Amino acid sequence: MDYDAPLIPGVLACRYKRFLADVQLQSGETLTAHCPNTGSMLGCAEPGLPVWLSHSDKPGRKYAHTWEQVAVDNGTRVGVHTGRTNRLVAEVLGSHELMPETAEGGPVRAEVTVPGLPMRADFYLEGDGRYIEVKNVTAAVNQGAAVFPDARSARGVRHLEVLQALAEAGTPSMLVFCAQRADVHTVSPADDIDPKYGVALRQAMAAGVDVIALGAEPTDTGIQVTRRLRVVT
Q1: In a 3-state reduction of DSSP, which class is residue 62?
Q2: What is d(CA 42, CA 31) in angstroms, rounded to the nearest whole number?
């Protein structure tokens, strides 16, 4: 995935009201950018961290800039824009190397309502009838270990329950964790943050839900999915 234009560097002054961030640019100007991440952004929202913004000329936008990336304490760039994640996964759906489970899945549809269940799946593979839900991962603990979620997520638990119900009914279902950072090798449920999510994830996996993880690397010009990560439960 390539950005429409090179990103604009700055330094995070503060994040507030969940969807806003004040950023000081290299020119000394401070502006308010949209923050496209509803989580706690654990480890990714401390004042003083280097950040990168995109700019949009779209008419009617209240804030022309969007927070895209941050460099965390160890210098690793992290993609914080959750809206980019589905596009990243879409680019590797069907890849024999990165997502071999979907290689024979056939045509892909996005944002599909699951019949009779409370969820819109991120993707539906028409060939094998597989529903896929994608989660963006930004938080990491210890060395190389990413965790999800970074805040309690009743919505995330509900999605797992739907995926489990599908699997139990014989319909293929998959959860994809996508970590937009190059310094992690595993993804695990954040049991200390949301124990209910950890329980739901393990139950879903036991019921037959495929759970995989991908690693992506953000740069000045774009983000690319580069590897598989291990899911550790």
Answers
A1: coil
A2: 23
Do 149 and 129 lie in one domain? The reply is yes
Q: What are phi and psi of 196, to 5 degrees?
A: -65, -35
Query: Where in the sequence is the domain holding 58, given as residue range(s)?
Result: 8-78
Question: What's the rounded Cα separation, in Å, for the pair 169 and 209?
Answer: 11
Asked whether residue 100 falls in the same domain as residue 176, the answer is: yes
Residue 230, Cβ neighbours under 10 Å: how many?
13
Asked if residue 2 is part of any domain, the answer here is no
First to last CA, the chain: 30
Burial class of 115 by CB neighbour count within 10 A (0 to 12, 13 to 18, 19+): exposed
Instruction: For the sheet with 108-113, list strands across it.
Output: 108-113, 120-125, 130-137, 173-179, 210-218, 223-231, 186-189, 145-148, 140-141
pTM: 0.95
Is residue 91 domain-shared with residue 60, that is, in the same domain? no
pLDDT in tens, 50-100: 999 999 998 989 999 999 999 999 999 999 999 999 999 999 999 999 999
Could you tell me if 162 and 194 lie in one domain?
Answer: yes
Determine the pLDDT at residue 112.
97
Mean pLDDT for the chain overall: 96
- The 10s digit of each residue's pLDDT in 128-156 is 999 999 999 999 988 899 999 999 999 99
What is the three-state SS of 22-40? Answer: EEEECCCCEEEEECCCCCC
